[in-house]
Amino acid sequence: MKSFLVKTGLLVACMVSLFHGKATAESETEWSLNCEQYGDIKPNQNPTYQHINCLLTNAAIQADIPPEVVKGIATQESHWRQFVDGKPFISNDKGIGIMQITDTTLPKEQQERLKNDILYNIETGVRILNNKASLTTLPHINGAGRDIIENWYFPVMAYNGVVQVNSPLFQESGEINHEAYQEKVFLNIKKGSYMGDTDLARYPFEVKDFKYVDKVIEFLEPEYIVQGVHETTIELKAGDRVLTTEGDVKLRETPGSPEYKVKLPIGTPLLIEGTFEFDESEISENQFVWFPAKTLDGQYSGYVSSAYIEKQVAFKAVSSSYNSIKTSWAAVSGASGYEIYRSTSSTGTYSKVGTTTSTSFMNSGLTTNQSYYYKMRAYRTVGSTKVYSNYSAIVTAKPIPAVPSSVKAASSSYNSIKTSWAAVSGASGYEIYRSTSSTGTYSKVGTTTSTSFMNSGLTTNQSYYYKMRAYRTVGSTKVYSNYSAIVTAKPIPAVPSSVKAASSSYNSIKTSWAAVSGASGYEIYRSTSSTGTYSKVGTTTSTSFMNSGLTTNRSYYYKMRAYRTVGSTKVYSNYSAIVTAKPLPAVPSSVKAASSSYNSVRTSWTAVSGASGYEVYRATSSTGTYSLAGSTTSTSYTNTGLTTNKPYYYKIRAYRTVGSMKVYSNYSTVVTAKPVPTVPTNFKATRISSTSLKLTWVSVSGASGYELYRSTSFSGTYNLLKSTTSLYYTNSSLTTGKTYYYKLRAYRTVGTTKVYSGWTTIISAKP
Predict the structure, then answer these.
(1) With contact defined as beta carbons under 8 Å apart, do 445 and 419 qualify?
(2) Most buried pick, 129, 153, 318, 527, via CB within 10 A?
(3) Burial profile 181-208: b = 16 or more Cβ within 10 angstroms, e = fewer
(4) Which residues form a coiled coil (predicted)?
């Protein structure tokens, strides 16, 4: 639905503007000049988001309309687009441009201007809205001016049409018509200008207040009293005092900057120091503005979002917690202080509960859900006398639990969402409500005494909306807080965790991760820099992936995401943390060390794919300093010139030569061996006679001698038969036909110690 111009020559006669009595020429130039810092508007191109924010804001200010309202309409009509793909945005029902002006009776020249001139399109839309606001047939809020956002509810309706489809209520059921044009616009205002954290006030509208005449709404109630309305903040100026409307409001370094100086609690008074500014990033899609402000003590100054402040009113009382009420008021010029009085009935006896020089007072120790009434008066100290003002109007409030803050909703798995919030002082528990649309019906899905709630059994990729309220049990009654801000999330697969990347070979990297519940598979993405462009290199249903064909020693960066197949659609998790690795030669495996002689140790290992060679390192203790003992292209290395019986420790690394550089693997595990004499070889027993055998063997390098042992059974006890420096021994006086078993070992004398070789294999013979 678009904006239909009244048939009274409104647009044709736009030389006489409705911009609150200012000439059209002025309105077409002055307000847009406030946005000159963004440069010229280029033909057939949408200005940057903040340039459009500036244009909509200043056009609204010139027309004395809250900018929040104009921005909400532009969001609903076009999402702030004058052009699409370089052409004027024309909708299916012939609406034109950012404000979707619809009037096919206009002269061609004006039609073309609406298409190609965004300033003219905005001004025309604002002019139409202003005209609707002047209609006496529309209801309004009693006592409210043009600065009250809710007072534009019915002019916004009229911008689209005062017709049955835009009825605030369904005539049959009395339920709110959330599909009405003005309802959608006001939801846009809540989301765009208040970041979804502020509920705009509703009219106490009833079905008896209107009727349909040929599908056109005729209003029977011209005026309403509406509580809790919101004044546009755009008119704030230096010296005005405001209060923060949410907790953890950030006072930022510059407009839109992520850096902030302090987080402010709800209800913090601030002093405005100048006029509003827009986001310093032109592409930021924030619709609100920023005000320079400082805390009243001057300790902190910066920029605060208009979404989280309201002008400090004369006197108000609001529940601060289950047992406290905060009263606040605007400063009274010349006042020395203020006295606050309280009663438990509006007409009862009021007792003084506090005196302060501040502009707020916290009254604690109250009874939950009890109504309290307050009035206050200012005083000025003259000499020793207090000169009092009259009492303020009476305000009332009940202590109830505070609204849960810091509310979050995040997918926990493919079928669950976790909501969490900050603990509310004095709360007995919390109730969690869920809907499948932000403005839909919310049903209670859980109660908890914790500060989080896991909602399971959900549909993957379905949007769910949550709000929660705290309660305090008083006797048998639950006293509830107001509802929290609405948060939303979709159940999607969890982010892969325990993600690792490690070189697998000189040209491959293996990535791995923990299995994700409900995942159908995983996609692996790679880049050559942590902040570069990531390209998909593989899909797998496993929890690891081998990426081959890589360049040795080059850094590669990986991230992965899980997906769950729902019908024909893949629903993805968020990306994992980024991990990095370089392809290096694999670590040598099956590493062994063994004595090869009395003064040498032989190390060996399995060949490493792609290795150009290997370096062997040696130390005399496992945790000592390792020095290069040798380099080889073979898969073994004999280290000579060692000390007999001394332990030596070895580790090996492979390398691949890339250009003139050696790219090394990590070190192997440490292995150890002692140089000892080698086992005697060619050990034989030969029959000499019916009672003697001759034992012979080959000389062992470095051996000082040999010990020969004999047994009468293979597995029996072997006793030393002879120690000799010879290479043979004749064993006499044996029993003819009896089998004798022999084994031999070499030894080397080091000082007073014999260092032995291993045993030979056992041999047997009969004389």
Answers:
(1) no
(2) 153
(3) bbbbbbbbbbbbbbbbbbebeebebeee
(4) none
* 374 residue type, one letter: Y
Q: How far is CA 615 from CA 56, 620, 741, in A?
A: 72, 17, 45
Contacts of residue 755, defined as CB under 8 A and 6 or more positions apart, other chains included, come to 598, 644, 645, 676, 677, 747, 748, 749
With H, G, I as helix, E, B as strand and everything else as coil, classify residue 53: helix
Phi and psi based region of residue 180 (left: phi greater than 0; alpha: psi -120 to 50; beta: remaining): beta
Residue type, 40: D
Pairing of strands 508-512, 740-750: unpaired
* 515 vs 325: CA distance, rounded Å: 51
DSSP letter, residue 210: E
Helix 153-160 crosses helix 67-78 at what angle (to 10 degrees)?
A: 30
Could you read off the pLDDT of 354-371 as tens digits, one per residue? Answer: 999 999 999 999 999 999
Burial of 333-354, coded b for 16+ CB within 10 Å and e otherwise, reads: eebeebbbbbbeeeeeebeebe
Tell how strand 429-435 and strand 464-474 pair up. antiparallel
Query: What's the token pair of residue 262?
Result: 């302090």
Q: How many CB atoms lie within 10 A of CB 596?
A: 19
Tens digit of pLDDT for each residue in 510-556?
999 999 999 999 999 999 999 999 999 999 999 999 999 999 999 99
A 10 A CB-CB count for 240 gives: 18
Q: What are phi and psi of 525, to 5 degrees?
A: -120, 145
Which tokens sit at 360? 């707020």
What element of type H or E holds 30?
A: helix 30-33
Give the DSSP H or E segment for 318.
strand 315-321
pTM to 2 decimals? 0.55
**Residue 32 bridge partners (DSSP):** none
Q: What is the pLDDT of residues 336-348, one digit of tens each?
A: 999 999 999 988 9
Cα gap 766→418, rounded to integer Å: 85
- Which residues, 6 or more positions from 192, have their beta carbon under 8 angstroms from its beta carbon? 68, 71, 72, 75, 287, 288
- How many residues are recorded in the chain? 767
Q: Which residues contact 487 (CB under 8 A, 6 or more apart)?
A: 407, 408, 409, 419, 465, 466, 467
